[in-house]
Amino acid sequence: MMLKNRKIFFILLVGIFIRVLLMPFFAHGDIIAVHRRVGKIVCQGDSLLNYSAPGAHLFEAVFAKLFTPFVSCHLLAGLQTNFYQPPFLNRMLFFFKLPYLLFELGFWWVVFEIFKNKNEKVKKRLAVFLAFNPVIIYSVYLFGRFETYQIFFSMVLIWTLNKLKQLSWKKGLTITGLMFLILTIRPSYIYIVPALILTLLPWKTKGIFWGLLPSGLFGILTFLPKFLSNSPIVDKQLEWLKTGTHPNYVFQAAVNIGQERKIFFFFLITGMIFLWWWERRSQFFKQNPAKTFSLLSSLIWLTFYGTSIFHPQYFSWFLPFFLVLLVDDQKDFLWQSFWLGVPFYFLTILAWGNYTTFGLLFPVSLAFRQIEPGWYLPLFPTIKWANIGRSIFSAFCFYWIYYLIRNFSSDGENR
User: Fold this and answer.
1) CA–CA distance from 197 to each of 209, 215, 221, 278 (Å)?
2) Backbone dihedral region of 225: left (phi > 0), alpha (psi from -120 to 50 degrees) or beta?
3) 255 membership: H or E segment, kind and range
4) Which pLDDT tens digit goes with each residue over 373-382?
């Protein structure tokens, strides 16, 4: 038993070593942009509410303050004047990403707490999935995004639902608080709020209230301060919600049925998922809320990935929910197909050219920003390879939807 535990510990330790090794040397410009804003918040007293995703900026600002002895305001000011080559960039990147590693370790701990009663084979598989997950390694430690914040809180929410027997005020506040916090970090998680509402629906009015409350609180946080100050930012944000790039991702894939009318694939498939749930609702009401939430959230995310434009780091949002289902998959199909699908996920990244490939090495040398992946690809242009990868990756998403609906029975166990 001790030997097996040591193997798991060694696997996780290797995973940490890989992350620490990558942290100072890779980045996308997004992490610089975020910390330019953080510099204004920490060093100039700028308000968190001046920016979208205030929760993410709060965490970044708190850690920036804690790491002031290593990354001073003087160094942060260098980001304002020199985007790609500020002084001591490698040092700053290490400390910028250190909180991401800490939150991921918290994520690992919660995973092993939830599955502590599983056998050693399952725990070893969990360790491999966590330590060597290429999606998280790429999204967080190469690309440099703060995805582990909401991944951690998503897993804590699943943990809370896993223990949910009665929906008391204390439990309701905990669930609402966690979902609200996740929304402040990544507003796009609004897509899975319906999954939370349907999960809590066995508690009827009380469940609907606790399920809807996080969205209401987030709306108040986002708009009320700006309305009170008569800020023009309100109009800009409302316009962004209607016509902005990110909110319109789900409207890009559609079939024209004539007279400028369209059927949007994302809403078509999510509507079918709702009807499937409605048909089986009495059975879902009896099963573990954590598994219901994980299943419905996975189906919604897979629909989003399969039908919409999404940035490469967004795929990491799906992983906590997928992990819950993977553990219960007695056929091992989810485990095997995940690794089969990863190469096609990375092919989709070619759509952004060197911004998501060689350009991530700009902290080592700006010369890497001049290298195009198309120089090394045979037969087809870069975008065609990206579209081939995207097409096959979407096939994986759709088949996972089919597999989950077909194979996961009402008690949440794989048939």
Assistant:
1) 8, 11, 20, 13
2) alpha
3) strand 254-258
4) 988 888 889 9
